[in-house]
TrEMBL record:
<dbReference type="InterPro" id="IPR057037">
    <property type="entry name" value="TPR_rep_actino"/>
</dbReference>
<protein>
    <recommendedName>
        <fullName>TPR repeat domain-containing protein</fullName>
    </recommendedName>
</protein>
<dbReference type="Pfam" id="PF23275">
    <property type="entry name" value="TPR_23"/>
</dbReference>
<feature type="domain" description="TPR repeat">
    <location>
        <begin position="316"/>
        <end position="497"/>
    </location>
</feature>
Length: 814
């Protein structure tokens, strides 16, 4: 017997599409039989939740404890949910809006599932033709009908032959009439053998059965393609509408990633939204509002996991398996160029300097990558699950050595420039992130940033078209969101050496890494074990940075890069200077050796538990590096030093009994002497290198510190930063233009700036001069060196200045 059964599997394989499978998967995704009960949960939750943001959580909680609800009263006759049902009214306009959109989303799902079932099993709704399941049954029956005509035709031909008797050769082939696809046709059928009496045997050959089967199967296959196309259209229309509802719900504060209505977070929805995003990005002029809509799911997951997504954030819970699968599926739709294009959109040219849709969408995508690669947030661990990460991400962070950036002699070629632009786009993308990366991913990004930067810096050694690198600074900016990982990188000797020996077209990312890794985070006790990695990173940075002075100052940068303005080390220089200012209390300590001290060192009882010391040569090397930095950075640093001196002196004078005054003066003198020594040495090595401090910096420092002096009779000590000068005082330092203007009344030699700063601090702390005369401000018009010196010496009669001058002279050994 021939086989005229066309299985669904066979049809789908032949058609290359799967209408039955797609319909079954969609029904399993929607679960229409549960939709009424889901609506009932929201109806109850709408009456209990205090805000739209709580609605999903309350509905989930009710679903978990209710043991079942009956939502039949909320359904219309057609199985959809009554949008006007009394139970679906919330507390307030936003709640009503959320419930209204949820009901519409549920009904959209119910109706689409019904239509998809109809397209496959009954009527192909867009055309009115029978559905593929109907056609399959029809064509199976049609094949049998065709086969039956050949059976009848063969019998008729045999009967006709027999009736002819001996007038014909009975072994001759028979002319048999039958039908294929209901079309009459005739075939010559030879005998297939003889019977026991020697007569011929005739039977319909298998080839005719195969032909019948083939023709009818083609009809089913064509129907399958049509049904699949229309099913796809219906589902895509539903998914587009669902994405729109999701955006509206997100704007109303509803958490799409929670609640019993989980259709926003299915893998199928993720794949659709990822594909739509990729398709939009491929356009010459992408619609940024659509791009924002296609990333709403990413934002929903982030909002559900992070209570605060600013400045790093800490996960409040890990992702669910569904949320992680959503991210993995979504990013699986995005290619290398898609991620790069998102970075380009982050710098939205239509909204310069504004929070634009392009920037918001890029930040969502970057944050999603941070979550997907962070095991603490429920994502994958790159160290052990790297094969689960998107190929597009791996291209930039893990497989960069196999790209055109590292091809043999790539510089200046079109492939190199094209690849560099792609890397730049990805760097721009990651720089928008507001969620901190996991420890391993942060570390991997840091290494990728430096390695790619060093490779692309080699382009400046030749004469060809250059493509500046933004990738490195972008990845370091993202890395810096993880403080622990940043400290870990700076405490890695190999990384630190390479990092400090690398020049940057834009060193903002390098600066961000330094600040993140050396500044003890808010809420961490500076004297705790948790703070030790940051103090260690600060020591390692300040101790090792002078070894790379030529690169950090730009002296050893390739001339081509400098001449064309492709190098800017100022942010890096400033970050090193800021770190030195923050830890100046430790740098100022006398020591013959450098090192991170044992927190229980018996030689320093009562001191900082986490501390380091720099020897005189290492301190001088650090100050020499800052002296040879750019003029603006250098002046900022020197003004910062004076502010530190003023703050340190003020605290010592304001402390009851002044038990630490002599130590403070010793430290101030040591730093002042180091500044002077470095300036003198630089001046002897060539004109233009000297950078003696001006007395105007004392006025600047006095103004800055006075802003934080408590307005009370009792002078209280100032606290700023973990160890030394903090961001509050640091931010009051004047601009370069202001500094230059004050240079006109500067006294540019000796220990007078430090002594004046101490005298001003003493005055602010309440130390009174004979006759109650005020100390002359160094920037007062017409002030002379003699005027200021006389006032300072008068003030010094109230305390022992020798500790400052002795330390100053010891440090200024020129």
């Amino acid at each position: 017997m021939p086989n005229f059964s066309f299985t669904r599997q066979e049809v789908e394989a032949k058609a290359g599409v799967k209408p039955w499978t797609l319909q079954e998967q969609f029904t399993a995704e929607i679960k229409p039989e549960d939709m009424g009960n889901t609506a009932a949960l929201y109806a109850r939750a709408a009456g209990e939740a205090e805000s739209a943001g709580e609605l999903a959580q309350v509905a989930s909680r009710l679903g978990a404890r209710s043991g079942g609800v009956d939502g039949r009263t909320l359904l219309d006759e057609d199985g959809t949910i009554k949008e006007t049902a009394r139970g679906l009214q919330g507390n307030g306009r936003d709640m009503d809006g959320v419930v209204r959109y949820l009901v519409r989303a549920m009904n959209e799902a119910i109706e689409t599932e019904h239509n998809v079932h109809e397209i496959v099993y009954n009527v192909d709704l867009p055309t009115g033709d029978p559905g593929v399941e109907v056609v399959r049954g029809q064509e199976e029956q049609g094949a049998w009908n065709d086969w039956a005509t050949w059976g009848r035709g063969l019998q008729a031909a045999v009967n006709e032959r027999n009736a002819a008797g001996n007038q014909v050769n009975h072994l001759m082939p028979l002319e048999v009439h039958g039908e294929i696809m209901s079309n009459p046709t005739t075939r010559s059928i030879p005998s297939s053998g003889t019977n026991a009496q020697g007569g011929p045997i005739f039977q319909i050959p298998e080839s005719i059965a195969e032909e019948i089967r083939k023709e009818h199967l083609e009809v089913v296959v064509d129907s399958a393609k049509s049904s699949h196309s229309h099913v796809n259209e219906a589902i895509n229309s539903y998914r587009y509408q669902l994405a729109q509802y999701g955006q509206e719900l997100g704007d109303l504060g509803y958490d799409l990633s929670e609640g019993p209505f989980g259709l926003f977070m299915t893998q199928q929805q993720a794949a659709y939204e990822g594909r739509q995003l990729a398709a939009e990005l491929a356009k010459a002029h992408p619609d940024k509002n659509l791009i924002l809509m296609w990333t709403e799911g990413l934002e929903a997951i982030a909002r559900g996991i992070y209570e605060d997504m600013r400045d790093g954030g800490t996960p409040s819970r890990p992702m669910t398996a569904q949320e992680r699968a959503f991210l993995q599926t979504f990013y699986g739709q995005l290619g290398i160029d898609d991620l790069a294009e998102l970075g380009e959109l982050a710098g939205d040219r239509d909204h310069p300097g504004q929070a634009s849709p392009g920037l918001a969408a890029a930040r969502r995508v970057a944050n999603g990558l941070m979550m997907l690669t962070n095991p603490d947030a429920g994502g994958f661990d790159p160290a052990t699950q790297g094969n689960q990460l998107p190929a597009s991400l791996r291209h930039f962070v893990y497989d960069y050595e196999h790209t055109d950036l590292f091809a043999q002699q790539p510089f200046g070629t079109s492939p190199f420039r094209h690849e560099m632009e792609r890397f730049n786009g990805f760097g721009d993308l990651m720089a928008t992130a507001s969620i901190a990366p996991g420890d391993r991913f942060a570390t991997d990004m840091g290494h990728a940033a430096v390695e790619v930067q060093r490779q692309t810096n080699m382009q400046y050694t030749g004469s060809h078209e250059y493509t500046p690198n933004r990738f490195g600074t972008g990845l370091l900016t993202a890395t810096a969101l993880n403080h622990e990982a940043s400290a870990g990188l700076l405490n890695d000797g190999d990384f630190r050496s390479t990092f400090l020996g690398t020049f940057w077209e834009n060193s903002n990312g390098a600066a961000a890494l330094i600040h993140s890794g050396t500044h003890v985070p808010q809420g961490v006790d500076p004297n705790s074990a948790a703070a030790r990695p940051y103090v260690q990173a600060a020591y390692n940075l300040l101790h090792d940075a002078p070894d790379s002075k030529g690169v950090i100052t730009g002296d050893l940068v390739p001339p081509n890069a400098k001449a064309l303005g492709y190098v800017d080390q100022s942010a890096l220089q400033r970050a090193i200077g800021n770190t030195a200012l923050e830890y100046m209390d430790l740098i100022a300590r006398p020591s013959e050796t450098s090192g991170l001290r044992d927190p229980h060192d018996p030689d320093h009882p009562g001191g900082f538990r986490n501390l380091f010391e720099l020897s005189t040569p290492d301190r001088e090397a650090l100050f020499s590096l800052m002296n040879e930095s750019g003029s603006t950075v250098r002046n900022e640093f020197l003004d910062g030093v004076t502010t530190w001196e003023t703050k340190t002196a003020y605290n010592a004078f304001a402390e009851p009994g002044r038990p630490h005054l002599n130590t403070a003066l010793d430290h101030i003198g040591r730093i002042a002497g180091t500044v002077q020594h470095v300036g003198v040495v630089a001046d002897t090595e060539g004109p233009g290198w000297a950078s003696f401090r001006s007395m105007s910096s004392v006025s600047s420092a006095t103004s800055a510190v006075s802003l934080f002096v408590p307005p009370t009779p009792a002078k209280l000590a100032l606290t700023a930063g973990s160890y030394g000068l903090g961001e509050m005082i640091r931010s009051q330092i004047p601009t370069a233009a202001e500094i230059d203007a004050r240079q006109q009344v500067a006294l540019e030699h000796g220990d007078m700036p430090a002594r004046t700063a101490v005298a001003q601090a003493a005055r602010m702390a309440g130390v009174r001069m004979p006759g109650h005369q005020s100390l002359l401000d160094p920037s007062t018009p017409g002030a002379t060196e003699a005027d200021i010196r006389a006032r300072v010496e008068t003030m010094e009669n109230n305390y022992d200045i020798k500790y400052l001058t002795e330390a100053y002279n010891d440090a200024n050994h020129t």
